[in-house]
User: Which sequence fits this backbone?
């Protein structure tokens, strides 16, 4: 399922000491199926590893997953690390981002302030993240792709 | 080069001393004194004997809190109110990472403030005496449950502390739990754990060992789980362990689950040496739970029903609060009692379901393929075979966070809800078996009017928490 | 002499007018207006259509409170939070005894003080308008459930009030519910109820009728329950009812319950006229519940599992608070959701259990014996046959409080937990069938090392609330 | 299973408008098996019906069952009715005798004051009631019976 002519690379990983792998496995499959080149860093990925991989692969997007409730502390200073490494990419975060019963809107604000372009909850469908990324990267689906989406 | 060979006695002693110097409480371990302590325990606290002589499935919950008196209270509650047959002591995450200093800080804080800053019982910090106080205070056998890649000091202290059962293994506590511990490293470390258990066994104190069957807990194809159990069972047997409980995590399809438990028992007895007493443990659903206690009780009950039919030696129960994490002791007891009621109502019934034999046969053939490839990769040595087979991807575990497994295999349910393999990657399986899986998944695709794709995998991962077994497309859902 | 014959139109009108003069709200009934009201209802409130077109078991709880707004709130909650497919309105005890004055006092008191002094919804007192407000406010089909020997006025008002399903029957709402109402009297009164439902049916408003399958709710042998269902179904069909839901109460043995539901469906279609659409309803365990919500959830889940395998058209759910009486609406919803989760996880699985066909065959043979004896007693007339068969004891119901049944038959579970007949009294059953029961009970006696005796009956009555299916002697119990 | 030489008659029934029949069915079986002549009046039995049956059958014991929680009101004046009819019999009551969470000892006191010789809760084994009645009627078990009890 190819679209446009050039490929787009995304870096994907679970930040901190979180070992939840199912979500990013599904995301890897979904983004690959949607035509992206996916660099999956796996679980327990440090801020530096995200930055390094984004530079090495000239990634257009950095997708961070966190499911164990410590995302906020794991992401402190993350965007400074990306900037220092010279990463110029869209950054998303998704998962169970807060331990408590906070309203998701408050959580979204917190992570937007940390520098993420988009913030998703754990119920988000992979298709929605793909859709958002296409919009942010101004990728237009091909005819065949459009057919698939509407089916 | 590390091989499946018994650690010599002098080497055992050398490592043991080295290990015990890692943390002050290590000094409290004295093997002869420990043997004497174990011999002083009454029959009904001897884990292996109680488990092996039971005439119906014994129930065991999960539970661990940092302070000793709280842990005693918790276990007594689960025994009295939950009517548990066997008890657990779940170890905290710092101890699992061998961060005893941090565990100590957490324990100190818990003692000062009463808040539980640790997510389990730091047995190393409690030391031999602390463990024995727990064993003395609670009137049932207790198992150590954790998730520790390097569990050598934990084993040394808890064995000396009177625990007679110890969960885990070099693959099952590496692949699903950690990213960077090499498999070779964890095998070496677990050889010590098993060798130590074997040393107790030689002296008549049979330490029960229980490889962790559910692995990543998410749609693990039965044959992969069973192959890992057989490898870990063989490694433990080599080191002298004589009571081994092989595990399996419910996938939710009754026929496949009963078939898998039958195959586990059958192949366990076949692949492990005759001198080992093989028992089995069934874990109630380890995947995502519904965010609703009422529906969670349905999931738990389906596990109880499966256990009543398959009759494993032990069942690890879930609580209706599984969705939200650590349950209250009331909810934990409720999970035990719900399971008990279902088992006790169903176990005397003659429930023989069609197709279990065929499914068991398929699982056994698949498992033999995997065992064959392990033996071939290792030229007959299980340790080398396991390392090389994981390295080549001939052996693999789906959704494995570890760098030691490719994690490239992907499962999906077939039209009947049985877990099949959708993406084989490099898994070494006979072509005719692959065809069977393909045909079953193709049948599902036809039913659903969609292509076989990772979407099925994604839908299946969420299905039970969403209230169904199979992740059907939304358009096919309820009104 | 009362016979199984359709009440003539003029007779119907005469009784109808007489009945409606029994209480002021009777005046509010106008047949043509009622037809118009029913025709105005949307498709998803048409009980018979919704039930008959479902592709998997629909769930329905029990619920009734005195005040209209409370009843609306309760049903909306069960619909939204419990995800019930069909809803009930359970009628209070005074109305069941035709004590409308006392019901009015209770309703007035409930309105004044807010306390529920009635144990259900006094539909007669609420009248046609009150009923229609309920039907309008709640977005699902609603059934009237009660236990009324003389339900003529209740039927007249609730049918005109928009209800399209009505539980009960002359035997099933007499034998288990009341001591002194004669069977002849209740048959005559229910002929009117059925004839009235038939009058609506003729005009295109199909009122669904549901004989109460569980009868006395305690270890009722399936063939006895099914025979009563067939008799009541036939009587209703004679009066023009065309949508009949035959009921069966879970006994707890999965094979026997699935076999009984299969037999109920099979024989229902065979014995009832072709123009009747026969559906089935499965009641979760109606006997004593464990005094523990966790264990009660296990009982409920076993019901869900059975329903997933047998796939009746409807399931009446229990709540985890069954032991303590009327459940909170939260507990009632929980029972629905637990049942739903089990059914949805199990229903797509191919679970075919050995021995169901044999058990079904036995149940069908037994039922035919009972139906034959009824036809013989009545010289071909079902009404006379039923009266005479109950009178002679050739037809009997265990634990029947009514003077109309001998209540001399006693059931006991066999070694597999299936309900057999221990004391036949005068029940008219072929000797070879009796021998089968005897052999099965003898097998249990051998297992338990005791004589067959009423002790087994007593032990079985308490077994499920004590946590088991079969009432084994204490000495054989758990440690 | 016969004991002594003469038979003893007990009258059994569920009082008031209670229709719970299972308990007395079991009791009927148990007392019959223990050698008593049982007159089972069934459910929904009035005070007068108990008295009448006790006189007609010269009963030595009147056993009242109640499971629906209204026993206290159903039994008001019961012993006066028995006395007026000239009944000279031991009287027991058993079942769910109170609706609320009262201590059973308090319930026992209430019914003792109403005139019952013994009061049992719903968990009572039929054998215990039989044992008590034998004691109260000074019936000695035969040898064979004694063997059965100890088995």
Assistant:
């Amino acid at each position: 399922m190819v679209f446009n002519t050039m490929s787009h690379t995304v870096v994907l990983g679970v930040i901190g000491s979180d070992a939840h792998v199912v979500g990013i496995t599904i995301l890897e499959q979904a983004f690959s199926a949607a035509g992206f080149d996916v660099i999956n860093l796996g679980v327990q990925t440090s801020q530096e590893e995200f930055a390094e991989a984004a530079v090495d692969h000239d990634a257009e997007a950095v997708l961070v997953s966190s499911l164990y409730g410590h995302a906020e502390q794991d992401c402190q200073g993350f965007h400074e690390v990306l900037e220092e490494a010279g990463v110029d990419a869209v950054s998303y975060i998704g998962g169970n981002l807060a331990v408590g019963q906070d309203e998701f809107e408050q959580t979204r604000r917190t992570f937007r302030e940390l520098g993420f372009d988009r913030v998703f909850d754990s119920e988000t469908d992979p298709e929605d993240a793909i859709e958002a990324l296409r919009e942010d990267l101004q990728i237009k689906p091909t005819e065949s792709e459009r057919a698939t989406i509407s089916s | 080069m590390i091989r499946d060979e018994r650690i010599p006695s002098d080497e055992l002693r050398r490592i043991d001393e080295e290990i015990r110097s890692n943390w002050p409480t290590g000094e409290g371990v004295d093997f002869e004194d420990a043997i004497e302590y174990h011999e002083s325990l009454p029959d009904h606290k001897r884990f292996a004997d109680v488990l092996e002589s039971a005439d119906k499935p014994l129930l065991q919950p999960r539970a661990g809190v940092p302070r000793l008196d709280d842990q005693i209270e918790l276990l007594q509650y689960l025994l009295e109110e939950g009517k548990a047959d066997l008890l657990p002591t779940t170890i905290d995450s710092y101890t699992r990472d061998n961060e005893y200093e941090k565990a100590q800080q957490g324990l100190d804080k818990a003692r000062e403030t009463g808040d539980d800053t640790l997510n389990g019982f730091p047995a190393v910090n409690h030391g031999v005496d602390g463990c024995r106080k727990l064993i003395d205070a609670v009137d049932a056998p207790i198992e150590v449950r954790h998730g520790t890649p390097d569990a050598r000091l934990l084993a040394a202290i808890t064995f000396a502390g009177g625990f007679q059962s110890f969960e885990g293994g070099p693959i099952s506590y590496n692949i699903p739990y950690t990213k960077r511990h090499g498999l070779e490293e964890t095998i070496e470390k677990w050889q010590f754990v098993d060798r130590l258990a074997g040393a107790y066994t030689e002296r008549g104190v049979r330490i029960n060992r229980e490889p962790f069957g559910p692995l990543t807990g998410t749609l693990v194809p039965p044959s992969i789980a069973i192959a890992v159990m057989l490898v870990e069972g063989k490694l433990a047997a080599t080191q002298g362990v004589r009571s081994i409980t092989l595990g399996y995590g419910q996938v939710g399809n009754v026929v496949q689950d009963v078939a898998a438990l039958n195959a586990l028992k059958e192949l366990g007895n076949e692949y492990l040496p005759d001198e080992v007493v093989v028992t089995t443990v069934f874990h109630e659903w380890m995947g995502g739970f519904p965010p609703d206690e009422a529906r969670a009780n349905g999931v738990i009950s389906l596990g109880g029903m499966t256990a009543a039919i398959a009759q494993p030696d032990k069942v690890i129960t879930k609580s209706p609060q599984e969705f939200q994490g650590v349950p209250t002791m009331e909810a934990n007891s409720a999970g035990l009692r719900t399971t008990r009621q279902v088992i006790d109502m169903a176990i005397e019934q003659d429930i023989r379901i069609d197709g279990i034999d065929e499914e068991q046969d398929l699982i056994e053939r698949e498992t033999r393929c995997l065992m064959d490839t392990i033996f071939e990769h290792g030229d007959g040595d299980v340790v080398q075979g396991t390392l090389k087979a994981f390295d080549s991807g001939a052996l693999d575990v789906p959704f494995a966070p570890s760098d030691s497994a490719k994690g490239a295999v992907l499962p999906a349910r077939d039209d009947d809800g049985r877990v099949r393999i959708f993406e084989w990657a490099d898994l070494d399986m006979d072509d005719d078996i692959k065809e069977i899986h393909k045909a079953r998944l193709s049948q599902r695709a036809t039913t659903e009017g969609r292509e076989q794709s990772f979407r099925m995998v994604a839908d299946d991962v969420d299905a039970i928490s969403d209230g169904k077994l199979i992740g059907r497309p939304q358009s096919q859902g309820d009104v």
Remarks:
- Residues 11 and 391 of chain C are 28 Å apart (CA to CA).
